[in-house]
Amino acid sequence: MLLADVALPIPLGRALTYSVPASQAARVVPGARVLVPLGGRRVVGVVLEKREGEPPQKVRDVIRAPDEAPAVPSELLELLRELASYYLAPVGDVLRLALPPLERDLAKEQGSAQPSLFDPKRGVGARMWSRTKAASPKR
To answer: Domains along the chain?
Structure first.
């Protein structure tokens, strides 16, 4: 079975393994962005490795690979993996910081739009944030 190890923007020190459907096999390559299920939501991750092998229990499928070409070139992908290893940082977080943010419309289309901290629907607007000051220490 064709498998992909995908780095996700979650605080986990390893990549998660997903099966690759035949329809997505050409696009799912190292460095490509993929949309995958994680719990009850969809998350955009980056493929670290594509391989043949025995699938783990309860393996889930890659939903789709939106890009025709990899989002992260192979040299940069290797550098980011070494950087994550050196600093003991989750590889998904390192890759997330290296990629440009998704456009809001594209993220909604992919079903992965997460509300921002500054979303007014969550009660914290950008204006409110800019007027907030730290309290001075009491003496």
So the answer is: 2-131 (3.40.1440.60)
